[in-house]
Amino acid sequence: MVWKAATFNVNGIRARLPLLLEWLQEQRPHVACLQEIKCQDKDFPHDAFVEAGYHVVWKGQKSFNGVAVLTTDPPQEVVRETDREVLDGEARFLAVKTCGVWVINTYVPQGRSPQDPAFGYKLAFLKETAQWIDARFAPDVPLLWTGDINVAPDPQDVYDPQRLDGEVGFHPEERRLFKEILGWGLVDLFRHLHPDEKQFTFWDYRLPRSVQRNLGWRLDHMLVTEPLAQAARDCRVDMTPRQKPKPSDHTPLVAVFHLDALSVSSPG
Amino acid sequence: MVWKAATFNVNGIRARLPLLLEWLQEQRPHVACLQEIKCQDKDFPHDAFVEAGYHVVWKGQKSFNGVAVLTTDPPQEVVRETDREVLDGEARFLAVKTCGVWVINTYVPQGRSPQDPAFGYKLAFLKETAQWIDARFAPDVPLLWTGDINVAPDPQDVYDPQRLDGEVGFHPEERRLFKEILGWGLVDLFRHLHPDEKQFTFWDYRLPRSVQRNLGWRLDHMLVTEPLAQAARDCRVDMTPRQKPKPSDHTPLVAVFHLDALSVSSPG
DNA sequence: GTTTCCCGAG
DNA sequence: CTCGGGAAAC
Questions:
Q1: A15 CB less than 7 Å from any atom of strand D
Q2: pLDDT single digits (tens) B178-196
Q3: Which GO molecular function entries does the Swiss-Prot or TrEMBL record give (chains A, B) (predicted)?
Q4: Residues A33, A57: contact at Cβ < 8 Å?
């Protein structure tokens, strides 16, 4: 099957609901990983997604963070709790197996500033997620770690690498860690398919006309294991939601895979 | 000329802007008195009304209160300050002469509760407005005192006169004062033209389905001097804005006058 | 319920 | 700039 996956930091699912539903109808991803839903579980607009034809798994908290996974096919497995304090303490982690693929959706802490304890938390969150994956999966299973990773790995991933060097999101320590994580057996799919493109997924609201001036960052990623990398046919940023009225500060990243082409080592 | 006047407590002019502009295009009043604009002067959406073909006078304050007068014809005179502390202390009073008619727009304090100092302030505000009018005008000039007066004068002006007797807005003291003020030479135009109609202009947001159950109050009025009363051809409540999405808790009161029929004692 | 302000967070 | 939350007012 042709399988479409997407990640989208919506910055408030209630504020973004009209835009998000419109985008889902246009793109019809088989799986959509959402971050920063910013609502408690009871306030999640579940019905709207069911009406749109999706199964929904969500994990919210008051005010901040919160993640959700929408799937056209019912999820085969769901992991809501990892029993790791760093991953479970805030609503930032959700894993779902759908269409035979494990999808890990994370909203990695932004980090605030390199001196702030939040930066240590960010690094720990990245490490623990990688460890959790390592403990549970091998690099030869079809796995997609996606979401707002909040790290721009390379100079071409920020609008001004000189000025931003050392800033949170483009700090040597996180970039090094990001590469180290890839070393386990993950491919940065967008960069893999587009080695030279300068394409962003986030533009700060606070910079005037940041979209028009393209003052962006590539912070949202699809990290895939080798079998999925080989099954990939496309991975691109969809700019349209960021250009509409009342946008999120992020815009979706979308990938297409030929799951039939998947060569899995294990029998199941 | 046929002259249409309206009063509308918008409960936040920024939140109500789409509804208000739509309503202005449908009704095209020559003068529209707005209350509870709830914005500072710098935040008033002046341009939107100019584009809609209106001259605008407004007086706002932070957070609460605030009044505005829209006129199709340029105002001949404007009174923004009365030099009376009670009238000028909060943004509740604005007077404009347009098309030869003096229009006094007030947002009378709600009063909170009969024991609260705010209730005394309400009574004082009503008295001072009446005094200001008396000091400046005679009952034989065309004058319209309109706005959210926050008094339901008679039992037929509230949804449950028994239960509400003594409540703020339907307290004997304010009703008595309201009648006393009319005694100077003002006519409650809606009641004058519709002696037996039970028609409201306000329905509390907090009562579930208050509009459908018609749990309302008649708090918004057009008090006119005799010449205007004789020139009046119509005075009715326009329910449509209260029935649309995102309504104010009030709905407009609209009146039509034949100004040619005006017999003014003075020459100008 | 609804609006506005102020706050913390990004 | 924008979101959500809590307070105050009606």
A1: yes
A2: 999 999 999 999 999 999 9
A3: double-stranded DNA 3'-5' DNA exonuclease activity; metal ion binding
A4: no
